[in-house]
Amino acid sequence: xxxxxxxxxxxxxxxxxxxxxxxxxxxxxxxxxxxxxxxxxxxxxxxxxxxxxxxxxxxxxxxxxxxxxxxxxxxxxxxxxxxxxxxxxxxxxxxxxxxxxxxxxxxxxxxxxxxxxxxxxxxxxxxxxxxxxxxxxxxxxxxxxxxxxxxxxxxxxxxxxxxxxxxxxxxxxxxxxxxxxxxxxxxxxxxxxxxxxxxxxxxxxxxxxxxxxxxxxxxxxxxxxxxxxxxxxxxxxxxxxxxxxxxxxxxxxxxxxxxxxxxxxxxxxxxxxxxxxxxxxxxxxxxxxxxxxxxxxxxxxxxxxxxxxxxxxxxxxxxxxxxxxxxxxxxxxxxxxxxxxxxxxxxxxxxxxxxxxxxxxxxxxxxxxxxxxxxxxxxxxxxxxxxxxxxxxxxxxxxxxxxxxxxxxxxxxxxxxxxxxxxxxxxxxxxxxxxxxxxxxxxxxxxxxxxxxxxxxxxxxxxxxxxxxxxxxxxxxxxxxxxxxxxxxxxxxxxxxxxxxxxxxxxxxxxxxxxxxxxxxxxxxxxxxxxxxxxxxxxxxxxxxxxxxxxxxxxxxxxxxxxxxxxxxxxxxxxxxxxxxxxxxxxxxxxxxxxxxxxxxxxxxxxxxxx
Length: 611
Description:
This protein is an all-alpha fold. It folds into two domains: 20-236 and 331-450, no CATH class; 464-610, Tetratricopeptide repeat domain (Serine Threonine Protein Phosphatase 5, Tetratricopeptide repeat). It is built from 30 helices and no strands. It has helices spanning 2-43, 55-67, 81-93, 96-123, 125-136, 139-144, 151-171, 174-190, 197-208, 213-229, 231-241, 251-258, 282-289, 295-312, 314-327, 341-347, 358-373, 377-396, 401-404, 408-428, 435-450, 460-472, 476-489, 493-505, 509-522, 527-539, 543-556, 561-573, 577-590, 594-610. It is elongated.
């Protein structure tokens, strides 16, 4: 009887602990959802809710073309998965601005849940709770879950793939291998740089598992399924441009953007590439070579430039690579090619989350956790391998805050393991066992933090975007003020050109001419500046100068459709029909929007009837 009573009490206590544990997990997920929804509600009251730029603008425009039935007619350069994700949500809901963000917020919460499961199964329940809580309150994750960027879905897919892979390694069930392969394949499609993990994982598996075919059956199926997930993008690229590109054509361009004579570790493109009209540098390369090229050839051209610089400067390349490895662990949030979280927080209500001072502490704890976990590396080696491979590949290109988001959950996991281990050690009184991990963490952290180079982070792009928002709304005076702030922050071609546009819209033509010339002094090959300069001359009825400017725009970017349209209209009114017809035909080859095409098609018909 006594024994039976004790068993019942033990069973009841176990159930109570389970219930309490579930409450803790639900509370963490509720906090994750709450802080993300609060930020989304705050974001809706800002101009950036419905306005996009940089990568967000490209993704949104690609999704719009898919929804309109135009599709993506060229080989993929940006993530193939994300614009189709936006387009799918858009088609189903009709409101992508809210529902894409809402789904990303749910994915962010699911990422925290999966991270808890990885932590619980690998390092214990306490580590799982701590890791999930850190991710729930990670301000950059909260922030980017509400923007049109691939990071949210990419991070979720990576954590899901690693969760299923850990289960597959423990239990060797085919279902887990398949789920890991599908989610990892989709993660590769969303950003191809993580593909290096696949061969590295297979090499380690070959050494760790018996060489019998039955032992390797599931890993080989895993490898095959990942390959299958790449077939749609490969087929699309071949159909679009007759090139063999399994995922995207961005490799060469991004490699050069991180490895050139001006590179400092961040994105750095010394060539005069117009990111607005020519984001992959395709038109620039064709202009430089005088040869029409497909996406693979353009990527190879950029790759060769990068490799040439690396081979000519091996010492500088190695130092730069080490610098980028250190920069990956910068204590600040390095925002580039997007809307800076720091800028947003200064001007609007920023995300609720852990304070900035927590970042270096978490990095130190993650270093300690990785060292502590080495004794059981056979349990978590796929996690550690993915983390190391991801950082190594990222540093080969360039570093910014968004690019470290996908492995931030793994850093949290190791930091959580360090904290949970320290709590156990303190309870047991064996504090001396923490000495070696502390020394190892300090040995890594000291050079990482002491050797961080100062970064010249400014907000010229954010001020520029605010100006563009007001310009599009017809508030040209307010737009001009923001463009001036952008130029004051850092003088750029886009800043000067947009300031000129605002002045021209207010009919301050003389000042506008000064600003256009200042922009062209910074970059005389800017097709967009020449195009807008031509628009100004047309406003003041100076057709010869407008013609000259639009001709220069096409010279520097032969695929600049609006310049072909304007030149065609100008030439048609001058009764130079043969030349007008040529530009109209080129415009129609480039422009897919039916509304934009309609008027030109009518003009082209009138020309042909006249002739």
